[in-house]
Amino acid sequence: AAVTVARSDIVTVQRSDTATLLQYCDITPVPAGELLHRGDVVFLTCGSNVLTTLSQKSVMQGLQILDTNVLKLAGFGTDLVELVLSDTNPYLGAVLGRSDFGSKYSVTVVAMRSRGQDQVTSSSDVRSEPLRAGDILLVVAREDVFQQLLNSKDFYVATRVGSLPPPVRKWDYVPVAIFVAMLVLVTAADVPIVKAAVTVMVLVVAGGWVAPKEALNLVDFRLLLLIGSPPGFA
What we know:
By secondary structure, this protein is an alpha+beta fold. Helices cover 30% and strands 20% of the residues. The protein has 9 helices and 9 strands. It has helices at 48-54, 57-60, 101-105, 123-126, 143-151, 174-188, 193-206, 212-215, 221-228, and strands at residues 3-5, 10-15, 25-27, 34-36, 41-44, 78-85, 107-113, 136-142, 155-160. A 4-stranded antiparallel β-sheet has the order 7-8-6-9. A 3-stranded antiparallel β-sheet has the order 3-2-5, with no helix packed on it. Helix 6 (174-188) packs antiparallel against helix 7 (193-206). The longest helix has 15 residues, at 174-188. The chain is elongated and about 80 Å long. The relative contact order is 0.11.
């Protein structure tokens, strides 16, 4: 019989239609009313008291605690991501447990670490503590969502947990050389700065260092407004 999933502390349901648990697709965030099927793997965020309750045979009723290394159960298309809230995040001051943060960014919050604290905030404090700039959230996010978070100004940093940055190649230093050449031409050869900046932008995008979709998100329009305004207005 199928069971309706309506638990607010469910992190992700992993659908396993094959005999092995090494291949599955994550369902995240888990919508209210998601049905569990035989062979699914459910990840929960809970305290030690809930874990103790789940270990009782009378409570499990067809459920089995998976005895395996979670790192060996890597899903397809999802990652654990750390997010650092910026000072422009619209949820600053809101209580995470009573907000639509997860649905807004299409993520599932696993844990939170408040700014200046070394310990991870417990599940009870997450439901009562207001969010502040600099707080770190551990979330489950799809690959396409991660790219959106990476370019969002709502977060200072978005980092995959446990991932290593790609190695730096000599080709990656070319944009620095192009930028320095632009500064030299503008200052020494009296080249118009607008033409020089547009040329550099075209070269950087054409060279593949910046994707066309990311170019607009990398522009800080508030800084441009500040630079272009008269001192009094700025």
